[in-house]
Design a protein that fits this description.
Residues 7-119 form the Acyl-CoA dehydrogenase/oxidase N-terminal domain. Keywords: FAD, Flavoprotein, Oxidoreductase. This is Acyl-CoA dehydrogenase family protein. It comes from Streptomyces yanii. It is built from eleven helices and ten strands. The protein is an alpha+beta fold and 385 residues long. The longest helix has 37 residues, at 237-273. The chain is globular.
C-alpha cells in the first residue's frame, strides 16, 4: 500500500535502526527476556545513537526535530524484529512532552542534556493501587513545607513502566483537596529524583507480556522534593495530563498496528516453510484466506495510524480522534495476532517463536493508556451521546 507519511530522511533512519537492532538487540534479546528487563547500559547506547534527542532542542544536545515520525519508525522496526527497547519508550513518549510543555528554561538546562544522552532516564508515575483509570481519585500527597523550600511527598504508585531504571520520575500528587464542583482540581506534577531519601522501588512486577520492559511499584515516605522541581503550576496537573494523553494514545495505536503487521510477516514466513501432509501450510486455501483477511485489517489500521500521526505532528489530534485510533488499532491487533498465532499451530504457543511473545505483549494495549471502555466513552461523548 502506498504511503506518504515518511520521506527519505525517515527511511535512512529506518536503515540505521534496523542495523542497530540486528547488531545490538537481536543477539542478546533472549537474555533480556530471561532477566525481565533490558540492561541499563543499553539506554546509553540509544542515547549515543541519538534516539532520545530527536525531538530535543539543539541547545540541549538534540536534533530539534518537532515530529513523532522517527518514533513511528522505531515502533515498526522493533515490531518487525520481534524485540523491544525495554522501558525506554516511556522516556521519550511520556517524559519528554511534559518537559517540553512545562519546564522552565532553568529546568530544561538541568534536565535535557542528561535526558538526551540517556544518562538520566525518565518515567511517569500516575496510576495508584485501587484507582486505576480514576486519576482524580489519587491519594498520593505533596505538602509544601513551612519554610516554602520543598514539598513532602507521601504515597504509592503502581504499574510504572521504566520504574526500575528511572533516574527521575514525573510523579502526580495532590497538593490541594478536590473542590466540590471539580474533583480534578488539586493535582500537581513533580520531577522527582529517584535518589531522594524516602523514595523506594518496590516489586519489579511479573507481567503476562512486555517481559523486557521493567515495570515497578514505587513508594514515597516523606520524600523532600525541592520547589524547583515542580513541573508547571500547582494544582493544574490534571489538565496537563489530559493534554499529553492524545500523544500517548497515538503511540499505543501505532505500536499496535506495527505489531499486527509484524504478526502477518511472521505467519507468512512460517506457513511458507512449514510442511504438513506433504504440502506447505501456505498452499492451503484456508491459510491464504486467513492471511489475506489479516492483511486487509493491517492495511486499514495502517491508514488510521498514519492519519493520527499526521494530525499529531500538525498539533491537531483531538482526544476523540486519539481514542478512536487507539480503540481501532488495538482491536485489530488483537484479532490479527490471534489468527496469526493459530496458523503457527502448537509452535505458536512456544516463547521461542516471536508470535508467542507478540501475543502476550499485545494484550495490554487495550488496557493501558486508558482501557478500550474508556476510549468508547470518550468517543461517545464527542458524538454528543
Amino acid at each position: 500500500m502506498r504511503r506518504t507519511v515518511f520521506n527519505e530522511d525517515h527511511e535512512a533512519f529506518r536503515e540505521t535502526i534496523r542495523a542497530f537492532i540486528a547488531a545490538e538487540v537481536v543477539p542478546v534479546y533472549d537474555e533480556w527476556f530471561a532477566a525481565g528487563q533490558a540492561p541499563r547500559e543499553f539506554y546509553h547506547k540509544l542515547g549515543e545513537l541519538g534516539v532520545f534527542g530527536i525531538e530535543v532542542d539543539e541547545e540541549y544536545g538534540g536534533a530539534g526535530i518537532d515530529s513523532h515520525k522517527y518514533e513511528a519508525v522505531i515502533y515498526e522496526e522493533t515490531a518487525r524484529a520481534g524485540v523491544s527497547f525495554g522501558g525506554s519508550g516511556v522516556h521519550t513518549l511520556l517524559g519528554l512532552p511534559y518537559i517540553k510543555m512545562l519546564a522552565t528554561d532553568e529546568q530544561k538546562k538541568r534536565w535535557l542534556p542528561k535526558f538526551t544522552t540517556g544518562e538520566e532516564m525518565w518515567a511517569l508515575a500516575m496510576t495508584e493501587p485501587g484507582t486505576g483509570s480514576d486519576v482524580a481519585g489519587m491519594k498520593t500527597t505533596a505538602k509544601l513545607s513551612e519554610d516554602g523550600t520543598h514539598y513532602v511527598l507521601n504515597g504509592a504508585k503502581t504499574f510504572i513502566t521504566g520504574g526500575v531504571h528511572a533516574d527521575r520520575v514525573i510523579v502526580c500528587a495532590r497538593t490541594s483537596a478536590p473542590r466540590e464542583d471539580d474533583r480534578r482540581f488539586g493535582i500537581s506534577l513533580f520531577a522527582v529524583d529517584t535518589k531522594s531519601a524516602g523514595y523506594s522501588v518496590g516489586r519489579k512486577l511479573d507481567k503476562l507480556g512486555l517481559k523486557v520492559s521493567d515495570t515497578a511499584e514505587l513508594a514515597f515516605v516523606d520524600v523532600k522534593v525541592p520547589v524547583d522541581d515542580l513541573l508547571g503550576e500547582e494544582n493544574k496537573g490534571f489538565g496537563y495530563l489530559g493534554t499529553n494523553l492524545a500523544s500517548e494514545r497515538w503511540g499505543i495505536a501505532f505500536g499496535a498496528y506495527a505489531q499486527a503487521a509484524a504478526a502477518v510477516r511472521f505467519a507468512k514466513s512460517y506457513v511458507q516453510d512449514r510442511t504438513v501432509f506433504g504440502k506447505t501450510v501456505a498452499s492451503f486455501q484456508n491459510t491464504k484466506f486467513e492471511l489475506a483477511a489479516c492483511q486487509a485489517e493491517v492495511d486499514a489500521a495502517q491508514a488510521v495510524a498514519d492519519r493520527a500521526l499526521e494530525a499529531l505532528d500538525a498539533g491537531e489530534l483531538t482526544a476523540a480522534e486519539a481514542a478512536s485510533a487507539k480503540l481501532f488499532c488495538t482491536e485489530v491487533a488483537h484479532r490479527v495476532i490471534d489468527r496469526c498465532l493459530q496458523l503457527h499451530g502448537g509452535y505458536g504457543f512456544m516463547n521461542e517463536y516471536p508470535i508467542a511473545r507478540l501475543y502476550a505483549d499485545n494484550r495490554v494495549n487495550r488496557i493501558y493508556g486508558g482501557t478500550s471502555e474508556v476510549m468508547k466513552s470518550i468517543i461517545a461523548k464527542s458524538m454528543g451521546l
